[in-house]
Amino acid sequence: MQTHKIPPIADSNPVPSDRPIQDLTVEQLHTLIRTTVEERLLEFLGDPDLGLPLNPEIQQQLLHQQQQCQLTGNQGLSTAELRQELELD
Questions:
Q1: Using CA atoms, how far apart are residues 2 and 46, in angstroms rounded to an integer?
Q2: What gap in Å lies between CA 62 and CA 23, rounded to an integer?
Q3: How many CB atoms are located within 10 Å of the residue 80 CB?
């Protein structure tokens, strides 16, 4: 079975790698747990979309977003900002 690494979940409250567990905030602990579970699931299940063709419209949209990010330096909302905007917290 192939394993696939994913980047950690982008969060406004990243987990410092040199910090003991007991010193983490509740939000940092949740981030650590979410990231760990997601990584383990991908190790076991793999990426179901790996190797599938990308829809041309989606590919064009992603390229446009990448160009806009390079031009403006704006990378969009953080996970915390998006959760707040969507009133998920």
A1: 6
A2: 38
A3: 15
pLDDT tens across 32-83, in order? 899 999 889 888 888 888 889 989 999 999 999 889 888 888 777 888 888 8
Alpha carbons 36 and 77: distance in angstroms, whole number:
22
Q: What is the pTM of this model?
A: 0.41
Q: CA-to-CA distance for 66 and 15, rounded, in angstroms? A: 27
What are the respective helix, strand and coil percentages of the chain, to the nearest 5?
55, 0, 45
For the cut 60, the answer to whether the pLDDT of residue 11 exceeds it is: no
Q: Which two tokens stand for residue 3?
A: 């394993």
The residue length of the chain stands at: 89
Q: Which two tokens stand for residue 36?
A: 């760990």
Tokens of 10: 């982008």
Are the C-beta atoms of 78 and 10 separated by less than 8 Å?
A: yes
Structure tokens at 42: 């991908």
